[in-house]
Amino acid sequence: MNLPNRLTVSRFFLTIAFLAAMFTEFRFHETVAMVLFLAASITDLMDGAIARKRNLITNFGILMDPLADKILTCSAFIAFVGQGYMPAWMAVLIVARELAITGLRLLAASKNVVLAAEGWGKHKTITQVVTIIAVLVKVSYPEWGTAGRLVFGFAIAGQPWVNHFTTLAMWLTVALTFLSGWLYLWRNRRLYLSDM
Fold first, then answer.
1. Which domain, by its residues, includes 112?
2. Is 21 left (phi over 0), alpha (psi -120 to 50) or beta?
3. At residue 114, does pLDDT exceed 90?
4. Which end of the chain is less crowded, N or C, counting CB atoms within 10 A of the terminal residue's CB?
């Protein structure tokens, strides 16, 4: 197994560890979850870059890399609902979009058509990662002592600025997730309309 594929596989294990940290009550468990999510996100950046640079692109990587990404982000949003950090409808919309696009790609693959990622999808992924990190910072910074409160806790309009930022990030993520999914389904509608 080459290095990019090892990094992809490690993301599955980091996702399990992230979920364990989220749902196990111990001191700084949200901070540990954040560090694990950041580590998993870094492997996502590295595996693709290394695979392209060293010409190590494999069918395993093509299939498993996006799957590992979706499992990581969807697990985080579902965990946030379980912990009361996010409204359930937001997580449902995000997960439904990821399932719909994965289904469309599988349908395309069955017809020997490769659907490339689009710009809107990449922006959506970035906002999802930023939102997940923002939520984890929001719930964990009070444990970081004075430094955490100074950096993330100063008030704007009566609330810590990180609260406003997190709310804005959630809404932006939902909007981009919906828009990117709708555009992707619309542009590739010939694939599924022909089978209806």
1. 3-193
2. alpha
3. no
4. C
